[in-house]
Amino acid sequence: MELVKKLLLKKFMRFKMLLIFAFLLSSCHKEDLDDYALTADEFTQGVIQEQNFQMALIARLKQNPSSAILLTVGKTREIFIQDYQQELVAMNFSDEQPHMPPLSEDQLNLLTSIDFSAGLEYESAIIKMLVDSDQNMIALHIRASSNSGLADPQLRGWTEMKLPQLRNNLKETQNLK
User: Fold this and answer.
1) What secondary structure does DSSP assign to 42-74, as a single string?
2) Do residues 20 and 73 share a domain?
């Protein structure tokens, strides 16, 4: 009798876990396909604009770096950005190829503001802006990969897959301080 109770309890617990799992799985399903937060084009233009800003910062950082580490990080980041953009274009999620959006007015103002400084103050300002930009890239990817982010499941999955690399970029930039 005791053995039967244990078996029934074990089956009940499995059934309960299955119900919980099914509930969680079904709660992640998005029913309203027209209510996504981002279109593929909005995401693409946002990340490309942010990366163009990073490229402008890296170009300034590489002009007269105070250490070889800064130069190495700059070169590594340039390669990452080029590879990232090539992958994004190769996904062919849209009939249109993404165009190169101009930098925002805020980004242009930030670049102009640091161009009037020099030395370590100049490098510190660039590094701080790179950290902020890395955080913006991560935020864009978190938003895009969320359940209500992008409608295209392939692109949504790709954005989630890029998060560890972007977090690594942020950590690398933060270590430059």
Assistant:
1) HHHHHHHHHHHHHHHHHHHHHHS-SSHHHHHHH
2) no
